[in-house]
User: What shape does this take?
Amino acid sequence: MKRLRRLPISDIIFALISFSAAFVVLSLIFSTIIVLYNESSLAIHKFGILNFIFTVDWDPVKEVFGAAASLYGTLVTTVLSLILAIPMAIGIAIFLTEISPHFLKTPIGIAIEMLAAIPSIIYGMWGLFTLAPIMANYVEPFLQKTLGQIPVIGMLFQGEPQGIDLFTASFILSIMIIPFITSVARDALNLTPNIMKESAYALGATKWEVVKDIMIPYAKLGIYGGIVLALGRALGETMAVAFVLGNNHQITTSLFDAAATITVTLANEFTEADSDIYLSSLFYLAFILFILSFVILAVAKFFLLKAERGYSR
Amino acid sequence: MNTKDIYQESPIVKRRKLISFFALTLSTFAALFGLFWLGFILFDVLRHGIQGLNLELFTEDPAPPGIPGGGLRNAFIGQLEIVFFATIIGVPLGILAGTFIAEYARGTKFAKTISILSDIMVSVPSIVVGTFIYAIMVQPIGHINIGGVVGVLFLSAILAIIFGGILNFIVNKLFPLKESSAGKLVSLVNTVITILFGVFMFSFLLPKLVDKIQGFNGWAGAASLAFIMIPVVLRTTEDMLSLVPWTLREAAFALGASYYRVIKDVVYKAAATGILTGVILSISRVAGETAPLLFTSFNNSYFTMNMNEPMASLTVTIFNYAMGPYEDWHVKAWAASFVITFFILIVTILSRFIIHIKYKG
Assistant: This one.
């Protein structure tokens, strides 16, 4: 307190104002949790937690709501988009750190990051008008003829290719999340000490062996962080998916069927909810999504912080 | 047989080289793949968007559904207004909070917690933000519109600061005082006048701009975009302030400046470019957001400047028009996408360029 008294009045006022701003930011997060919980309490009491998560029905007329179909759609699109994006993104990161000529590094790096700057609604519209027809006419029939003939895996590629389905949505998502993985992975790969790479070259390693055995293990934590970050992004993406997924509450084995994700359900139905329990169930979905992404992003942050600490040592 | 021959003829080495070549080629293709999609999307937006671009798009309101013609003036104005108020609310909050955790609370647990939480907030699904704002600013019909009050508060504070700056400038020009006691008195009077001006603006603007909640409203849209902006601005401010060398502050302290003066006149000046770039980037980021506006500002097919009514925005209009059945709507949606995409791309590239020159050049 003695120190505070010596401070001029303007200093105390400014410190207080900036403290309250920081406090507002902190309270925003907590009030989000409280408000979402409060709004969804009606549905939580009626449907329970596990019951809600494992119920497939989503029937506004009978007022029976379950999150299983939306969660399933979210899970499938997220996992599939990660499967498509991870190899691509790491490939691009390797290209940017090791292969690209120096003068191309910055422009190509910025170009890849531009993919993240394009608004998601543009992805959605482009997906609906341009990509979906291409998918329906060329890519999906091709996949059916090839991968679709293999037993078990073939189950994923059944049905009439429409272009408005899980596969197209995941594909668009994968393009959207590539820059998130790439930029984190590139920064992590760049931090590999030159002396380690040079030692490996001196032992006769090829460039790929240096990348695979020296750089990637070194940058492992950073790459994990980037992947988990991208996972969090893919979970919460709304507009890009809303255009090309239909809004169909069902669990299907085929990737060529319309489905719903939590975000798509919210975007399509939130303003149409006509009963309290309907709205409350939608809030419940939002609450689940918030908790999911919060936990996943916290994990990503954990990896990245750990990676940072590791490198600075 | 010398060693060179053994090395070159060994099939294992050949295989390893081949694998290396193959893997590196694949990653080059990955880069080309990424660039291909960027080019494809931009080209497509350009190709379709150019067709719908004309003057009426910016100057006329929409025609009734199904009838060709008309424009999207309501959406352009609505978008500008929502983003303007989001900036008014989000930027000062973000900068102030960033300043607090980078300066006053430097290195404390509190600062680290906020820093980590806002990193998480940056990536929280934007549609969840929309539902949160809906619950507090759309659903409670008849209650006070918090977003509106906060918006007007920040607007009048900013106006007061500008007013105070001008007042200070004029007074100093008119009466260049040498004595420090008189100078202190003048600056005290200036401050009081400035605060009174701010209070007056607030009480004058509040009833004019903010009504009780009647349902979907523009303030809610602005608040949800501000929610998304705050962590972005906060983190940039924190990073940029921590780039300012500590010795610079010490030099100012040694001259007897208070911490407030040091922050205002030294630290902010040194970090201005970086913070400004962060602010511009955060504006371009929220300019493309759709999901949080869907159930906050909703949509409006009529022209309105009143933030208490549902308000059209470009992005929500694109969503409705693209999903709609009319060919004319699709053309308009593409044109609007063209405007928004290239605005964002140009702003992003420019600000990256500025950062590049300032910090790496």
